[in-house]
Write a structure and sequence with these properties.
Layout: H1 12-17, E1 20-26, H2 33-43, H3 54-64, H4 70-75, H5 77-82, H6 87-103, E2 106-113, H7 125-145, E3 151-159, H8 165-174, E4 180-186, H9 198-206, E5 212-215, H10 221-230, E6 235-238, E7 246-247, E8 256-259, E9 263-267, H11 269-276, E10 281-283, H12 285-291, H13 302-307, E11 312-314, H14 319-322, H15 326-337, H16 341-353, H17 359-378
Parallel strand pairs: 1-2, 2-3, 3-4, 5-6, 6-10, 10-11
Antiparallel strand pairs: 7-9, 8-9
Helix pairs in contact: 2-3, 6-7, 8-9, 16-17
The structure holds inosine and zinc ion.
């Protein structure tokens, strides 16, 4: 029914106002360029490639991250981490993160960072976590004062090339009722399989705690398979390379599923498992274009994965390096695939279902915030004639 209403392909303004849920966003990948410059001055960091012009610094991050290689992409984080080494800097960056997401219409976000990367100036792991939590609470309050509601949970990341995963998993577990909702591993994927950190994942499973794993981004199916079947990940960070186990020209028979556009599509055992088990995929289209995991938005696997009803979600990964936001990501998808408000709601509900907060809270967020928000947007076309000129906006011209 709704697909026949005239206004279901959202405008940029509707995309921004639509309630959005974000599961994959790096705190150290989302700083405001002006904040980086100010923090570098305040803390005496002299290594910035552009130290007096926020626009040029912004452009530098985007261009440097555009290399087609995950390893080169990750090099840019040296500069953001360098200015996130004091309590005040962490509070500020976390608060601005929550405010920026809220201003973009994000109502729920899980934001990740690696505490071990913020110890250069003497902070302990606990002090890092407490500073970031304080910043998120501050940002939530400021967002509220500005008329936006957001709830932010932290994910603690361990770096996969290092050997601190168990320690970070224990840290995440210790703060699980104080703002930390789960655990993750990140960093270069090739050469650092998830099973290197099996002890951390086994610990979290024994504690009935939650974790996601960056897998299937720069490396393919073996990484996804290990993350799920050896490590027991609740979600896949990216997971986009699951496409390697899907044959779009597959013939009918075992593993065949029908796709409205391609006809019969054949899923391998792993892809079928991911779909059948509703394993959430934290897809990050713009980031994938930069690291070479996808060639263009049109060719991004999200189109097929959505049609096949995988548990796909839309995410930013690194707003600074990709010059993106949740609204920008949805904007690309709306333009590329013609997605409607119903599609946006589908991705958003998928994300909320896959969040690491308790079930009753996820359900309330879906029923009390997300669905009413989309219902309101979907009804806007009914009032189109009355909306733009109601006498309230004309004074500002
Ligand atoms: O897309 C990604 N794949 C793998 N690792 C990443 C990605 N984005 C960021 N990081 C890594 O995660 C650390 C903690 O936030 C960042 O410092 C960066 O090294
Ligand atoms: Zn990531």
């Amino acid at each position: 029914m709704t697909s026949e209403t005239p206004n279901t392909v959202p405008t940029p303004e509707q995309i921004r106002r639509a309630p959005k849920a974000l599961l994959h966003d790096h705190l150290d990948g989302g700083l405001r360029p002006a904040t980086i410059i100010e923090l570098a001055r305040e803390t005496g960091y002299s290594g910035l490639p552009e130290s007096d012009d926020a626009d040029r610094l912004n452009a530098w991050f985007r261009e440097s991250a555009d290399s087609g290689s995950l390893e080169r992409y990750l090099e840019t984080f040296a500069h953001t981490c360098a200015v996130m080494q004091t309590r005040d800097a962490l509070v500020r960056v976390a608060a601005e993160c929550a405010e920026d997401l809220a201003a973009d219409g994000v109502v729920y976000a899980e934001v990740r960072y690696a505490p071990e990367q913020h110890l250069e100036r003497g902070l302990t792991l606990e002090q890092v976590v407490e500073a970031v939590n304080e910043g998120f609470r501050l940002g939530e309050r400021r967002a509220r004062a500005a008329g936006n509601r957001i709830r932010v949970g932290a994910l603690l990341t361990a770096m996969r090339h290092a050997a601190r995963a168990l320690e970070i998993a224990e840290l995440a577990n210790g703060y699980r009722d104080q703002g930390v909702v789960g655990f993750d591993i990140a960093g270069a994927e090739a050469g650092y399989p998830p099973t290197r950190h099996l002890d951390a994942f086994e610990f979290l499973k024994r504690e009935n705690n939650h974790f996601t794993i960056h897998a299937g981004e720069a490396f393919g199916l073996p990484s996804i398979w290990q993350a799920l079947q050896w490590c027991g990940a609740d979600r896949l960070g990216h997971g986009v390379r699951i496409i390697d186990d899907i044959d779009p020209g597959g013939a009918a028979g075992a593993g065949a599923v029908s796709d409205a556009k391609s006809g019969e599509v054949r899923l391998g055992r792993l892809a079928a498992y991911v779909r059948d088990k509703r394993v959430p995929l934290e897809l990050c289209p713009s980031s994938n274009l930069q690291t070479g995991a996808a060639a263009s938005y049109a060719e991004h696997p999200i189109g097929l994965l959505r049609r096949l009803n995988f548990r796909a979600t839309v995410n930013t990964d690194n707003r600074l390096m990709s010059g993106t936001s949740m609204s920008a990501e949805f904007g690309h998808l709306v333009r590329t695939f013609g997605y409607t408000l119903d599609d946006m709601q589908w991705f958003t509900v998928n994300a909320m279902k896959s969040a690491f907060i308790p079930f009753d809270e996820r359900l309330a967020m879906i029923n009390e915030v997300i669905k009413p928000g989309y219902a309101e947007l979907k009804a806007e076309w009914l009032f189109h004639a009355a909306a733009p000129d109601n006498g309230l906006t004309s004074a500002s011209g």
